[in-house]
Design a protein that fits this description.
This protein is α+β, with helices and mostly antiparallel strands and 169 residues long. Helix content is 36%, strand content 17%. A hairpin with a 5-residue loop joins β3 and β4.
Amino acid sequence: MARPGRPRKHDAAADQIRQAIDDSPEHEALGVCVMARFISFILATGFLTGCVTRPQPTEQATPPPQKHAQAKHSYSVGMSRNEVRAKLADSWLLVSASRPLAGWSGQVSPPAGGFAEMFERSHPGAVEACDVYWVGHTNAPSMYSGKWLNYFYFDRNDKLIGFDRWVIN
């Protein structure tokens, strides 16, 4: 702003100096540098804010199920069949099979027969009964493929002699 009583010549000289500065390459580089710093500041602030805030529970990814998750029930060899059934009251009993006269095979009481046969070959003693459970579920699965099933093997006194967990393919 011009002061009263001063000549306008001074203002014209100041305008020429400002114009010369604005046209210089150093001034353009200074403007780009300031703009780059400003954009960097905005981006850094955005990233830090994103890292500090937690996603809502509906946005959080759920961990994938583990293949060999620990069963919530514990079983020990020598338990009675009734004790095992009591522990598995919240589970679906798919098959309860007794040993056929000809012995276990994959064609007898699927899926119990084939797994009882494998267990019997790899362990001492005879499997007289085999119970198959879908642990933790109270109704039958709509599809058996891909489900983890628990197999319980009992001797002639209905004592637990072993158990396995297999997936049906």
